[in-house]
Amino acid sequence: MKTLLLIDIQNDFMPGGALAVSGGDEIIPLVNDLMPQFELIVATQDWHPADHGSFAASHPGKNIFDQITLDGLPQTLWPVHCVQNTGGALFAPGLDTRRISRVFTKGMNPLIDSYSGLHDNGHRASTGMGIWLRAQGVSELSIAGVATDYCVKFTVLDALAEGFKVNVLSSACRGVNLHPGDVDSALAEMQAAGAVLQV
Length: 199
Prior knowledge:
- By secondary structure, this protein is of the alpha/beta class.
- The chain has helices at residues 27-34, 129-135, 148-161, 182-192, and strands at residues 3-7, 40-46, 67-70, 73-76, 102-106, 140-146, 165-174, 196-198.
- It has one domain: Isochorismatase-like (Rossmann fold).
- Helix content is 20%, strand content 23%.
- The strands form two sheets. Strands 5-2-1-6-7-8 form a six-stranded parallel beta sheet.
- Helix 1 links the parallel strand 1 and strand 2.
- The longest helix has 14 residues, at 148-161.
- The chain is globular.
């Protein structure tokens, strides 16, 4: 079954959002145009509690983009973003959500971040996506969304590790690029792990 997986196309990751990804809004018409080519469309949604440990605001004296250890794992500190039941966590305007069959929320545990749509960053808990996809007969995923160098990358790597074939629709992804070259490195890492990069 041809399956399109959309990663975190949410207001806070769009230009003007709390954690804006440059050009994030540019992928929306591309994704909408892709949808008719797929039988199944699934999406992920960052869904953080207001006191999430990945937020710099949760750590007095720390700044956005500082590096800390959170519950034993390295953690980049982010601006407060995609807080549950706020406008920033909603899917971006213009995204055709009518064809999305299932949304998997992530990042609810305040003690651990969850870049991947399948597992938290420590692989301590699963979102259930992998099991659900297999129950639908899915063996191959095409992935688009934000951000290339974080949530897209880790979703792709986890999906490959679980045995899915993965196509990265790179023209319909945008990255944070916190450090110059991060996006290119992420694409190379995904390809080296077995993903097929498609423009």
